[in-house]
Amino acid sequence: PSMYGEYEAILGQCLKRRKLAKMAELMMADANNPAADPDALSVQVIDTLQGSDCTPMSVTLSDALLDFITDLDKGKDARCYSGLPDVDRIVGGFRGGQYVAIGARPGVGKSAFALYVAVNIARRRGPVLLASLEMSPKEIAARCVSGASGVDGGRINAGDLDAEAYALLTACYPDLASIPLHITDRARTPLKLRREAVRLKNR
After folding, report:
1. CA pair distance 175, 148, nearest whole angstrom
2. Model pTM greater than 0.85?
3. Phi and psi (nearest 5°) for 79?
4. Secondary structure string (H, E, C) spanning 70-86
5. Which residues, in sequence order, are bridge partners of residue 130?
6. pLDDT tens digits, residue range 112-161?
7. What's the rounded Cα separation, in Å, for the pair 164 and 160?
8. 106, 128, 101, 104: which is closest to 117 by C-alpha?
9. Which residues does 40 contact at the CB level (< 8 Å), separation at least 6?
């Protein structure tokens, strides 16, 4: 009985190898097929590496309660905070597994809000992946520099910088460069976003 866990792990690895071999065959067969979706194949490979098809997709209420109590015991350590007191008071912090949607009319600051939260959490808790459908990484970097330096974003975009403004921009670079914020404007589908998140997690 004491060897059951070891045997199960060996069988699991063998199953993964068989699935990877099968996936390799499928990928070779679809290499020249324009109708094949390479992102879908990539996700299948990731799923194979992370676990087998028999991985449970649900939990019991007992397990959910245990996770809930564990979070309560951790207190604030189980949450990530935006850094905006009013938001944190209303939301109660962001918890793992949550899906939080922020909605508003165009031009009221949704992107600026998301960037502020991402930078704050990355600074305090560790790596964050920020996916943008509107701005390039360079534009996001410009916003970060503007916020950290106090130099107006319009002046930065126009290149209207005197010696004082330029000194303010360069002074905030070391601090910003140390923040573990990863930016992508290429992960435009859930499959690509998931693949990038898994890649960063496994680094």
Report:
1. 9
2. no
3. -125, 155
4. HHHHHHHHHEECCCCHH
5. 183
6. 999 999 999 999 999 999 999 889 999 999 999 999 999 999 999 888 89
7. 11
8. 128
9. 191
